[in-house]
């Protein structure tokens, strides 16, 4: 059942329609069971900060949120209160990330040509990052934002002994949004064996045999995972506000 009026914005003929899929169905186990989507960053819920950025982005035409069933009424009220206009639906998330994304895609506009999958718990994403990633996907079919790894990475065995040191200049930490041609993504879901086990949507496309282009984003695009991340996020918000 649709709980929002369908207010998908239709793009010009030259611009494909893009649906943002906001994944907010996690269990927040590293937050001690407290749903991080409802935690406040300078007085504004994490999920609302995420949705506001996507709603203001000109390349995003609609937003569908995938959430835990028990959280949907609160999210519905919150989105209404903050008037996040491009949200067209909140759907029940699945047992896996892929299932949550698939449930959201099913409720998106049939006119949608691209999907921009984003973690609800990455509230500091910027319009520039979204635009850069979406436009790259328009050209290549699949794109993801991320940052180059700063630290030296070690691969260790089961005894915690270092067995390899990969070259740092080839390593990236992948973030979201991750943007894909919709038909390609759905074809990959149908074709790739055990795809429900993947925790990263890029992995699905890689296993499908297609390339994913990385777009350099920002180290500020952090994911709220543990309690100290809220303090870090607030510090970033305060600095941004001071620089505006």
Task: Estimate percent helicity.
Answer: 25-40%
For the largest beta-sheet, the strand count, sense and barrel status come to: 7 strands, mixed
Rg: 18 Å
* Overall outline: globular
Q: What is the helix tally?
A: 7
Low-confidence stretches: none
CATH topology heading: Spore Coat Polysaccharide Biosynthesis Protein SpsA, Chain A
Provide an overview of this structure.
The chain has 244 residues and is α/β, with parallel strands linked by helices. It has a single domain (18-145, 173-243), classed as Spore Coat Polysaccharide Biosynthesis Protein SpsA, Chain A, CATH 3.90.550. Helix content is 33%, strand content 23%. The chain is built from 7 helices and 11 strands. It has helices spanning 46-56, 72-82, 97-106, 127-140, 182-191, 201-208, 227-243; strands spanning 18-24, 40-41, 44-45, 62-67, 87-92, 114-119, 142-148, 155-156, 162-164, 172-181, 213-216. The strands form 3 sheets. A 7-stranded mixed β-sheet has the order 5-4-1-6-10-7-11, with helices on both faces. Strands 2-3 form a two-stranded antiparallel sheet. A two-stranded antiparallel sheet has the order 8-9. The longest helix has 17 residues, at 227-243. It is globular, with a radius of gyration of 18 Å.
Relevant terms:
244 residues; alpha/beta; Spore Coat Polysaccharide Biosynthesis Protein SpsA, Chain A; 7-stranded mixed beta sheet; two-stranded antiparallel sheet; 7 helices
What does the secondary structure layout of this molecule look like, with pairings?
Layout: E1 18-24, E2 40-41, E3 44-45, H1 46-56, E4 62-67, H2 72-82, E5 87-92, H3 97-106, E6 114-119, H4 127-140, E7 142-148, E8 155-156, E9 162-164, E10 172-181, H5 182-191, H6 201-208, E11 213-216, H7 227-243
Parallel strand pairs: 1-4, 1-6, 4-5, 7-11
Antiparallel strand pairs: 2-3, 6-10, 7-10, 8-9
Helix pairs in contact: 5-6
